[in-house]
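[step 3/7] fold_predict: job queued, chain A
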Amino acid sequence: MAPQPSTRSIKKILVPTDFSEPSAHAISTAIDFARVLQATIELVHVYVEPVYVLPPPVDLAIFPFNVADLLAKVQASLDAERDRVQAAGVACEATMLSGKAAPEIVARAKATGTDLIVMGRHGRSGLEHALLGSVAERVVHHTPCPVLVVPTPRAQ
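[step 4/7] structure written:
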């Protein structure tokens, strides 16, 4: 069994974001940890490239969807989150990846030597969980580093 890092050895925190409320809470939590541990944060957003399956005979289909505009908006949102972390006094990078969220997050953590992943939990249950699964759950099962899953605070 590999030794677990102590809080003193946590210097790189990876925070996946989908720009949702749970992700915002995870980023805030990561900022708090980074301040105490004098760690850096890498924000990661994973987008899924649109795939169009057309029935035979395959014909030319025009879709009124501009991927470049969408990616520019995503990058602007990611940059805004990075600026929020930096304004809190924490060194931060932002990375946009393409693919399935959980495998890309795990691969990024391995590739960058991440010491801790902090991510939000959407709280899906029942049929929604069965159909969509849990990115956090899959990351926990496949990543080599500790994962802190941050629940969204309940309204009082």
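[step 5/7] annotate
The first strand starts at residue 12 and ends at 16.
Strands lie at 12-16, 40-47, 92-98, 116-121, 147-151.
exit 0
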